[in-house]
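Section 3.1: Structural characterization of target chains.
Under the original work plan, the team committed to producing a structural model for every single-chain target entering the pipeline before any wet-lab resources were allocated. The record below documents one such target. The sequence was received from the expression subgroup and is listed exactly as submitted; it comprises 143 residues.
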Amino acid sequence: MIKRAFVNGEAIPREAVEHEFDRLARLYAENGMPAEELKKNVEKLLAQAQEQAIGAKLLLLRAKELGLEPDELVSKTCAGTPDPEEAEMVAFYRANKEAFGGAEFVQVQTKVRDFLRHAARGKVLAAFIAELREKAQIEYRDA
């Protein structure tokens, strides 16, 4: 069982971890992970869910400090992220062509761009959360 997490003295609610766990389990299932594999990795998924809940709490706290809504903070943080270049999109398409079921690049170009844009923004957001983590006091205690 995972230990209970606290951010700056505030407990991460069990409901927040459960919400992240459900989201992760659904995401993995939708991407082909068999139910047996999910069951074998429950502890890892719980730990990952808890870390994501900590990240969400850090974002909420920072947004509150700045007088922003969390979505506004995320948008501002990711605002300067450049869109993928054509060459990057083509390279990604070629490396993952079979995943597109034989569709030509022009047919899936928007999906590829959106995927790469989302991935780039995810990296920016992860770096921002890592900065917030460095400044926060995060504790793990027995439940």
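The chain has a mean pLDDT of 93.
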